[in-house]
Structures are given as C-alpha cells and as structure tokens.
Amino acid sequence: MASIQIDHLSKIFGHPKAVEKALEMLQDNKDPKEIGLETNTTIALNDVSFTIEDQELFVIVGLSGSGKSTLIRCLNLLNKPTTGQIFLDKQEITNLNKQELRDFRRKRVSMVFQHFGLLSHRTIIKNVEYGLEIQGVDRKTRTEKALETLEIVGLKGWEDKKPHQLSGGMKQRVGLARAIVTEPEILLMDEPYSALDPLIRREMQNELLTLEDYINRTIVFITHDMNEAFKMGDRIALMKDGKIIQIGTPQEFFSNPVDDYVVDFISDVDKTQIFKARNIVRKDQLIVDINDLRQEVLAKMKESKVDVCYVVDDKKMYMGQMSKEDVAKSRAKTIDKLIVHVEPILRNTYLKDLWSRFENYDENLPVVDSKGKFRGVLSKDDMISVLAQ
Ligand SMILES: Nc1ncnc2c1ncn2[C@@H]1O[C@H](COP(=O)(O)OP(=O)(O)OP(=O)(O)O)[C@@H](O)[C@H]1O
Ligand SMILES: [Mg+2]
After folding, report:
1. What residues line ligand 1, using a CB cutoff of 6 Å?
2. What pLDDT score was predicted for residue 97?
3. Contact 239, 66 (CB under 8 A)
4. Given ligand 1 and candidates 40, 66, 82, 114, which is best to mutate, with the most ligand atoms within 8 Å of its CB?
C-alpha cells in the first residue's frame, strides 16, 4: 500500500531570512508575485493539498515553471518543504531523520528523470544494478534481478553496452529498469518522455500503461503536454503558479472545467486519442469467487440487488459472469456450470476501437487489465456520452 497525502505543502526558494519574510507575507494574503519581487524569493509551491491513491497513475501537468518538479522532488525529499507535511500511508515522511530518510529513498521510492541520469562509465546492467548495490544486495541476486528487469523493459541483450551506445528511447528504458528493479512502492517520473521523438514517445507511453498492471505501484508522472497527461492519468492535477487549479479524471476536466484557463488548456486535446476503457470503467460490481456456492451467490445477488455478477478466481482473474435468473433457476450446489464467459475488454483499449464490440450488444462488457484481473465493466451509454460530450 502506498497512498500519498500532501497537506498544505509550500516551497519557497531563497535566502532563509527572506523565505521567512515571504512566508509571513503569504500568510497575510499578499500577492505571491509581489512577495517574490519584494523579498527576492521564488514561491514554487503555494499551499498545495491533495491525496494520491494507492496504485494510482497520477499525473501532474502544467506550464514550465508552474512548480511540477518542485512538487515531485518534495515527495522524495530532494526538496525540503518550507511548510506542510507529506504522509505515506499515514506515516509522515517530512519528519524523517537522516537514517530513516536514506532508507526511505533506497527502498520505498525511486525516480525516472527526463535526461535519463545514467552513469556513463557503467555498463547497462551495472546501471540497473546500482540501486540494489547500495541496498547491499548480493552480487548473484543483483545480476538476476537486473537481467529480469532489463527483459521487462525490452532490453534483453543490451546488458554489456554503455549508455552512449543506446538511443534516447533505450536510455529511458534503462532509466525505468533502474527505477523499478528495487521494487519501490512509489515511482516518480519527471517528464520522462519529453526528450523523445513522438513515435518512440507513444510507444513508451503504451508500454508504461501495460507495465503498470504488472508492477502495481503508485506512479506520479509529470508532463507539460495535456494530451500525454490525459492519456496516462487516472487522475490529473493541473498546476499554475505553484497552485493546483483543478484535480480530477480526464472526463471531469471535460465535463466540468473550473475556469477559462482550464478550458483553454484542454481545448487542443483529442478525446479519441485519450479515452480508454479504464477512464470510464464502472467499478461497483458484485464480484464472487469461483469457489462460492450457488446459494451464497444467490443471497449476495439479492442483497446487492443486481441481475449480473462477475466471477473471479483466487488471483482475482476474470472467469466470466452469471445472471440472477440462471443462478436462481439452477439446482446445482456449485456455480461452475452457470458461468458465461464474455470476451473481456483490456482496460487500456481506446474507446474509439470499441464501437464494433457494442454494435449488436447492449449489455455491459467486462474490463480486465493486461494480466487478466477483473477491473469492472464498461457500459455502452457511458461510452457514448463521453465521446459525444
Ligand atoms: N533550486 C531552486 N532554486 C531557486 N529557484 C528554483 C529552484 N528550483 C525551482 N525553482 C523555481 O521554482 C519555480 C518552479 O520550478 P519547477 O522546476 O518546479 O517548475 P516546472 O513546472 O517543473 O517547470 P518545467 O516544466 O520547466 O520543468 C520556477 O520559478 C523555478 O525557477
Ligand atoms: Mg520540471
């Protein structure tokens, strides 16, 4: 579990005395820009509060200088907040001592940088091993894990090359491998794809969305590109001048932009290129276990007042669905014969590619992740209303 709670976070850059003065003026509700000029400070974050859910892919978007990097660097305490607190699963991390902070950075959080940040004199595999090395993991385990991770990011066979022998996209894969090899709870990505060509960039975006299903991490992803933000994010925070202007799901931005700035920001976004099944999946389904008895299932369906329930195995993998009618009619003790398998939709499928599935079908379709885990259902009405908005 790794939810992140950010509570009244501010970061002011400048001489300590000046920062103190600026903070006072800020509390007196003076204009941040004027305070900056008057005290010779930069108010990079101004009283930011929000929560990132466990295993969410959370995107922070905003123009250059809006405070995105400052914010993400507060999450691993590369930036020390001027005021405010950060909690990881209710544990405060803004008050860790040196030793605890070192442990926190080694084990619980890692970061992918825009310009890769690879060690140029080390081979690719040694770059990936680095985080394990400082954790004191033994050589054999290190090598095994690094090889495994390089394979996951599609770089099998490149172990003994040096960073300069790789293209930008490949270097960023190494950056990602290095960040996930230690299995951190939180993955921080600061404009990881901004330096890449559009084609490679799109490929990397899609790969991360798939990879996410396998690594189950909380991911904080920064970009200044609204299309990328909406494509990647379960939820998005739009920043301006050190503040969060709006926070929500892509469709919340479209259906309810808080002001003209947001309207302007989202005006160029092509909805067909961003909306995926996951963006509008309905999660509140009745899910039953394949080993549940028919009578139990019937009782649950009555209690939840549903006509359909979804069946998963012990790993939460989608097995199929059942109608209340069938469950009620049957005389069987178990449910295995009652399950109807409906071909599920992958949650990262674009809505525009799903019309054909609904052509002669009006029921909800089951949605799974890349591993086959049940994630909810997609309704035809939701799909139409999102694309028509
Ligand atoms: N170490 C620092 N010292 C002084 N000022 C800083 C420092 N880091 C950032 N700033 C200032 O804080 C403000 C926010 O910077 P930040 O790097 O967080 O923006 P950003 O949204 O990441 O921008 P970009 O898209 O260009 O990366 C800027 O005005 C910047 O100049
Ligand atoms: Mg930045």
Report:
1. 13, 42, 44, 62, 64-70, 224
2. 95
3. yes
4. 66
pLDDT digits (tens, 9 = 90+) for 131-168: 999 999 999 999 999 999 999 999 999 999 999 999 99
Task: State residue 291's pLDDT score.
Answer: 95
- pLDDT tens track for 51-74: 999 999 999 999 999 999 999 999
Q: Using an 8 Å Cβ cutoff, are 378 and 354 in contact?
A: yes
Domain that holds residue 61: 54-80+98-108+184-269
User: Model's pTM, two decimal places?
Assistant: 0.90
Q: Which of 59, 64, 70 to mutate to test the pocket of ligand 1 (most atoms within 8 A of CB)?
A: 70
CA end-to-end span of the chain: 35
Same domain? For 211 and 240 the reply is yes
2/4 Cα distance (integer angstroms): 6
User: Taken in order 124, 147, 214, 354, is the CA torsion positive or negative?
Assistant: positive
Cα separation, 183 vs 109, in Å, equals 9
Number of domains in the chain: 2
Domain contains 328: yes
Q: Classify the phi-psi angles of 372: left when phi > 0, otherwise alpha if psi is within -120 to 50, otherwise beta.
A: left
Confidence of residue 114 (pLDDT cuts 50, 70, 90): confident
